[in-house]
Amino acid sequence: MELYINEFIPVTAVEGPGLRACLWVQGCSIRCDDCMVPHTWDRKKGKVADTSALLQILRETPGIEGLTVLGGEPMDQAPALLPFLEQVKASGLSLMLFSGYTREAILASGCPYKAAIIDLCDIFIDGPYVKDLTSFDRPWVGSGNQRIFFQTERYRHLENNLHTIENKVEIRITDEGEIAINGMMPKEKFIELQRSFRKI
């Protein structure tokens, strides 16, 4: 089964605890109002991942402690995503994953692939982005309804210390001059940053 992705970054310091790799899947059935990344909605606009190559990169990248998976919506591709994530965890890396579905809705769906993905996570973040509840008081999430589940002891020490973690963004410039931004910030500031680069 093919896994459609939007982007993969081997090393980032803004998508979860420590240095991590980050994978954005392509395709989303939720499509939150005022979503920051609507370009990840249409699965047809993604690329088919070579998961063996991604695993090789993960194993050969020094200093990273885990993988963060966002979207798009990861649970929309649960059957294709699960085998890859099992190998990620088997290699000793931690797993942090975002879903716009609530944990209760995922488990109530009865899908064994989705339930297994939740079980693999060290940190699982659930809930859609809700524009009226926009809040950047906590790291990694954009609205107050979203919940952060620390499911293993690996990051349990962070649970009561989220106030010490700041949201940050990274700006990458490729050799071809392409600019990419990732991390968490208010949408208006993100748009302002985009515009400032277009003027350069």
Automatic annotation (TrEMBL):
Q: Does the keyword Metal-binding apply?
A: yes
Which Pfam families does the record match to this protein? Answer: Fer4_12 (PF13353)
Q: What is this protein called?
A: Anaerobic ribonucleoside-triphosphate reductase activating protein
Q: Which cofactor does it need?
A: [4Fe-4S] cluster
**What keywords were assigned to this record?**
4Fe-4S, Iron, Iron-sulfur, Metal-binding, S-adenosyl-L-methionine
- Keyword Iron in the entry? The reply is yes
Show the GO MF annotations.
4 iron, 4 sulfur cluster binding; [formate-C-acetyltransferase]-activating enzyme activity; metal ion binding; ribonucleoside-diphosphate reductase activity, thioredoxin disulfide as acceptor
